Each structure stands twice: as structure tokens, then as C-alpha cells.
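Figure 2 data, in text form.
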Amino acid sequence: MVNFKMFLLYVCKDKNKTMTEPPIITNSVLIITKSAEYNDMKSVSRGGTSWRCGKNDRKLAVFGRNDYFCPVELLPMLYQLLTSLPLMTCAFFTIYIALELRNKELRELPALFCYMLMATVLYTGHFVFFNHAYRLIPVTDTLYLTANLAVYPLYLIYIIRLTRKIHPSHYLLLLPAAVGGIACGIIYSTMTTEEIRLFIEKFLYDNQMEGLTGQVLTQVWIHIVCRLVFAIEVIASVVIGTRLIRNYNHMVEEFYADTDDKSLHTIRTILILVLVASAMSLVASVIGRYRFIGSQWLLAIPSTSFAILQFCIGYIGLHRRFSYYDMLNEQNVIYEVRLNNKKGGPSESMPERINQLMRDQQVFLQPNLKLENLAQLLQTNRTYVYQTINQQMGMTFNELINRKRIAYAKELMESHPELSMNEVAARSGFASLSSFYRNLKLYR
């Protein structure tokens, strides 16, 4: 038998009204009668399934009609699908990433795995909450609070591993999650059954603090403080993450001509989406998650948004094949440049030598050209080439090469108008048509 409590929205905003007749439950249809307000405690049951409504309950009539016929077979599937959608998405990527951990080429996967695992725990708490599994809430709410404070620091740690060398001190970002989770768990363990019930009904499901005392009030304040810490973490993660990505992308442009498969522009976009999703989450916490219970269409907005966001994070993370560590392993140029910057600089003739090489050999037409390749052709130290381009010529290596490529592409289009854009891009040294169009927009 279907548990109707999951799908009926309580309503008792006007406590002075009473319901003249209870809802009628038949085999396949629930009929909500015209007056849907309760005052005294009542219960309706059929076939062992019961539903109770008391003074503090919210609303019964959900869809704004006086009379509503609701096929009960359709609601459970849709409601449970919506409440479990982000959970299933995160669980899928957690398992998938766990299987990919054997691929040692992807150094950042352990950090992404930890993030996805914690996100799975987070959305498990959501699922339990929205499906009224009251007996599980003391455990899942503790895990939810811990995961809520851990997901953004974990994603920031993942970005740090992508963009720079990780330091053990970075893991201190998880300290608020540990402290909040332990505090919440300890208070739950000292609360009586009645206190837990009161906390769940009054605060978690009704977002009210009035009349709460003792351990219940302590638990309320723990949750409020954790919400404030969560808001600070979101802003800090987005700001720091954006700065790290910007510095990393600039570093890539200094050493590589083709950056499509190396830059982190997509992850920066995800960070912006994370900020939007977090704002939605904060608003939901302030107005109360209970307002989403039972309304499939209202619940569909955050549920599908978070599911899509987590899918993008998992999918993009699994398809990344380049990071800061790959740059170091590939040419170890960053440390060399920083060490040699204190020594003597390149000769004044170096810019002319680079330009002459570009004119005579047109090396910019080589796909995936690197700073190291240019230094080898000039038979000089790559640090000197780096300093010449950045300091004397006033641009990055990426800008230098792609300016040359665009100039060549323009000449090619004028002399061979019959060529397609794909052919022009390929002959000009671009790895993809999208890269060609992007650089054409920048350097036309």
C-alpha cells in the first residue's frame, strides 16, 4: 500500500477552520474535498496505511483546486525520482571514478573521487529528508551537515591539484566540516527521543525556533552556524578557485601555442555555476526545505539543476588529461624559469632572432608547438626565450604564435578563397576550428 503521507502536503495555516469531512481514499484515487483545513488531531486510514494531521501541520490541498483527483500510482515514482536524481548522479560518478583510479596518469582523480563521494553522502541526506525517513534523520542529518561543509573545500582541493603543487596544509580546509559534524553528532547522541522528534518537526521541517530549549536549541544553533560557515566557504572557494584557474591558464599560455586541451576554461565556468547553485541552496535553507516537500514541480528545479551540475563536474573531470603536474613532467620549465630569472637576461638581438625564425621557417604552422621546441630551434636556453617573449616582446608565447597564425590565415583566405574554414585552420597550424575562430576574434 502506498504511504500517502509522502505525497500529501499538510496545510493548517488557518487554525480556526476545521475540516468537515476527511479526505476519501479509494483503491486508486485520493479525493481531496473542498475544505482542506484541520484543527483537531484526526487520522484517515485504509488497508493498514494511515495519515495523521495535527495543529502544526501545513497544507493538504496542494494543486490549488477545491476538488482534486490524484492517481496515487503516478506520484511515488515521480517524487522519488526527483528526490533521488542528484544522489544517483553522484553515486554513478563515484563508482565510475573509483574504477578509473587504477589509471595512474590521472593524478587528480583521487581528489575528484573524494568530492563525488562526499556529494553522494550530501544528497543521501536530501533523499532521506524529502522522503520522511524519520528514524534515519539523526544519522543522515549529521552526515549531511558534515558533507555540506566538506564538498566545496574538496572541490577547491581538486582545483588546487589541477593548478599547482598541493601542500598538506590545504587539507585544513576540511576542519570546519569535521568540527561541525562531530558537534552535531554529539548533541544528537545526548538528546532524548522526544527532543529529536521536536527538533526534526519544528526546525528541520518547519524552520522554526520558537519555544525550543536545552539540547534542541543547541542543535539549532549548530545548524545555523554551519549554514553561515557554508556561505563563507562557497564565496571563498569560488574566489580562490577562479584566481588559481586564471593563473594556471596564464602559465599554460606562456609555454604552449595550443591550449584547448590544457586550459581550465570549462572548470571556471563550472565554478560560476557552482556559485549560482550554492545561492539556490542557501535560499532554500533560509526559507525552509519543507516548502519543497510534496510539490513535484517546485522540487524539480533544484533537483535537476544539482543533478546537471554534478554530471558536468564528473564528466569534465573524467575527461581531463592535462594539469600542472603534467606540465612539470613534460618539460620542468616552470622551476627552471623561476630559478634563472635572477640570473642574466637574454641578449638584445633575441627578439630579432625569433622574428627571423618565424619568417624563414614559419615554425608557428607546427601544431602543438611548445616553448621548448622554439628554444631548440634557436639553439638557446628556453629561459631566455621565455624572458624575451614576455619581457621584451610584451606578450605570452601563446599570443605570439597565434598572432602569427591568424596573420597567415588572413593571407591564405585572400589568396585562396576557395578553401573551407576547416582547411584554412588546419593549414594555419590550429588544432581545431573552434581554436581558430576564438583566436581570429582575439587578434583580427
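Caption note: The CA atoms of residues 230 and 435 lie 38 Å apart.
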